[in-house]
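EI: anyone free to look at a 340-residue chain?
SC: sure, send it
EI:
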Amino acid sequence: MEPTLSPWRMSIAPMMDWTDRHCRYFHRLLTRQTLLYTEMVNAGGILYGGTERHLRFNAEEHPVALQLGGNEPDKLAQAARLGEQWGYDEINLNCGCPSDRVQRGAFGASLMKAPQLVADCVKAMNDVVSVPVTVKHRIGIDKVEDYGFVRDFIGTVADAGCTVFIVHARNAWLQGLSPKENRDIPPLRYEVVHRLKAEFPEFTIAINGGIQTDEVVLEQLDHLDGVMIGREAYHNPWWLARWDQIYYGGAPCPLTREEVEVAMVEYMEREAAQHGTPWPHIARHMLGLRHSLPGARIWRQVWSNHLLKDRPAREVHALAMDTYGTFAYGHPAEPGAEAG
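SC: here you go
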């Protein structure tokens, strides 16, 4: 009997302003099994800022996890309960975001300095939901590279019932770096995450940070239970079309790039009719679909041209394909054709 693959084997990271429900719908067209995460949603926003606005998602997105931000156990518990009621498959607590706004609220990466508070938050959520409650965190704070710090953090939080940890393999520098710089400047230390798995073999531990190729993913899966991909999944989404085959032993995405684009146009039309969503809010997430192909830049320019925003999405799609096909082939593209 073959071993069961971890639900966290492959996942796409929560990314602010990027992984909204439209982005997740797009990604789900490319991979059926990869776990998807929402953007970080402040627990208070869910409770007081419009529950439906923050929690509505498409049924096609499953499996999908709700990532919460916050530091008050009671509010996080209420938000987690609502998340489960809305149908999310997992509740994840953000203990890794280093932004100034998050720091002012004393949550995100700042929570790593208060592991007992994190444990209290996890316990409060675990007490009211039946889906997994997980934690995403860094390997340290600021420039102190102390393995004992992250080891003790996991130990304390695990005592509250958390058994799944998604570890961004960089420190979070809370002073002196922007959130963007925090994604690149603190050095990656994958060996720290491997050491955590060796010390806590009973827990599910997935790694995040700087992973961009199949070779690196497979290397990490030799040591760990899962790999979370961030920016590379967003900027080069066609990579996802192979994940079900490579990492789950299933079939690759059955759709061509053109068929995915047509499916997204149909989704744009449904969203406009049902919710009044302007198509540019959706199209921006698929601009990497033809990443590295001849003509990709001019195709992106059509879809991102604000002068076309009042035209129907289907017309913009036809224009994009005519322009792309003429550049790539010397004539408008045939349906389903892919350059390169």
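EI: Residues 257-329 form one domain.
SC: 👍
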